[in-house]
Amino acid sequence: MSASVVSARRLAAAGLAAAAVVGAVALPASAADHSRDERPKVEISAVQYDAPGGRDDRSNRSLNREWVELTNTTRHGINLDGWRLSNRDGRVYTFDDYRLAPRATVRIHTGEGRDTRSDLFQDRRREVWDNRADTATLRNDRNRFVDAQSWGGRHHGDDRYDRRDRGDDRYDRGDRHHGGDRHDRGDRRDRGDRD
Q1: CA distances for 140 relative to 34, 41, 188, angstroms
Q2: CA 142 to CA 157: how far, in whole Å?
Q3: What global pTM score does this model have?
Q4: Which of 154, 153, 150 is nearest to 129 (CA)?
């Protein structure tokens, strides 16, 4: 074997070894650059803050046409027991023994009704969400901020905030995502705050 062939092999081997060392050192740095998405696991996905179809007359039908939707964006169910949904004025709805299924959405209505997997009711007799400007805030059972949506100053006549901004009429048809376990309407709900 000639000296030039051996030298070429040694140089190639040395180059491969150097590339392996550089690659091993660079691997943790590149892995750190691909951190997980920091969006919330549960998000406020839509808000109907002004009941459509006329004026707010405080009827149960009108109150239940005012709602907030929460969506579980993960592949795992999330226990919302003790979580709180509140407005800017401090009116609070506390979830009691409710589990939101993976990739599911639950609609929280203002008025009275029978809770199901896809619809929960605050059992209030007055509107919660201000039609002009307000903020819906979601906090977990440790009072840590999860998500919030604010409105006000938007185009006149736009009475629904939809995070997905799809432009479809899905909500006006009454279609809903289904999921979650049955909600037990126990005494943990802030009934003293009911109007």
Answers
A1: 27, 11, 15
A2: 37
A3: 0.62
A4: 150
The widest CA-to-CA distance across the chain, in whole angstroms, is 97
Q: Which of residues 177 and 66 earns the better pLDDT score? A: 66
* Contacts (Cβ under 8 Å, ≥6 apart) of 67: 47, 48, 107, 108, 109, 110
* Cα separation, 88 vs 129, whole angstroms: 9
Alpha-carbon distance of 179 to 172, in angstroms, equals: 20
- Residue type present at position 169: D
Tokens 């009827």 locate to: 59
CB-CB contact of 100 with 179 (8 Å): yes
Residues 56-78: tens digit of each pLDDT: 788 999 999 999 999 999 999 99
Compute the C-alpha angle 116/181/115, nearest 5°: 20
CA pair distance 4, 159, nearest whole angstrom:
79
> d(Cα 191, Cα 195) in Å, to the nearest integer?
9
Residue 25 burial by CB count (10 A; 0-12/13-18/19+): exposed, middle or buried? exposed
With a CB cutoff of 8 Å and minimum separation 6, the contacts of 124 are 63, 91, 110, 111, 112, 194, 195
pLDDT in tens, 18-42: 555 444 444 444 444 444 555 569 9
